[in-house]
Specification:
Elements: H1 14-18, H2 20-42, E1 72-73, H3 88-92, E2 98-104, E3 112-120, H4 129-133, E4 139-140, E5 157-158, H5 160-165, H6 181-187
Antiparallel strand pairs: 1-4, 2-3, 3-5
The structure holds iron/sulfur cluster (2 copies).
């Protein structure tokens, strides 16, 4: 198929070509909001709901109940990481921002654990799929903490120790209810 070029005519009329009227309209909107906020604050009539922004960090808006904060890695009863390096979360992650290098667990109660567990918070799209995919309740996004601004790219990568420092013991049963859960449920 032949490629054609569509020529678009320049906007006609002095109003469209100079943008002066558009600039004046924009300035009028800015001045209207400025005078409304300034006069309102002078007489104490400026309400939180009147303005689109808040003077952060002095004032903070409450987060929605299902807000997703920075990740954390949960711990087992013995303080070890709950993660068994099953690789479900890096597989499901659409941003490919989770890196796990597994190693054999010395505890003997689980087969594997992560030797390296890193999350690149600058690539993360905060979808929460890693939390949904985890079969061990090992990773959560319920810290309520924002990703902090960083000066170096490498500082945005959270390592295992960072993630564990925000973790806590999970109330979930490690490995689920275990074998014969139907029989146990019937007898209880
Ligand atoms: S929240 Fe989504 S993008 Fe971020 S690490 Fe988890 S799966 Fe990946
Ligand atoms: S899904 Fe859970 S257990 Fe599996 S690697 Fe990710 S954090 Fe670890």
């Amino acid at each position: 198929m032949a490629t054609t070029v569509k020529t678009v005519a320049r906007p006609a009329g002095i109003r469209r070509q100079t943008y002066l009227i558009a600039i004046a309209e924009g300035l009028a909107v800015t001045f209207r909001h400025f005078s409304k906020n300034f006069v309102g604050s002078l007489f104490g009539r400026r309400k939180h709901t009147d303005i689109a922004t808040v003077p952060y960090p002095e004032e903070k808006k409450p987060y929605p109940e299902r807000n997703r904060g920075l990740h954390r890695l949960m711990k087992r009863d013995d303080g070890e990481v709950r993660c068994v390096a099953c690789m479900m979360c890096p597989t499901v992650c659409p941003a490919h921002c989770i890196t796990i290098v597994p190693e054999e667990s010395p505890s003997g109660t689980i087969e594997k654990r992560p030797k390296i567990f890193e999350i690149d918070e600058l690539r993360c799209v905060v979808c929460g799929l890693c939390v949904e995919a985890c079969p061990c309740d090992a990773i959560r996004m319920d810290t309520g903490i924002h990703a902090a601004p960083v000066l170096r790219r490498a500082d945005a990568i959270l390592e295992k120790d960072d993630l564990l420092s925000r973790g806590d013991k999970s109330t979930a049963t490690q490995g689920g209810a275990g074998a014969f859960w139907r029989e146990k449920a019937k007898s209880s």
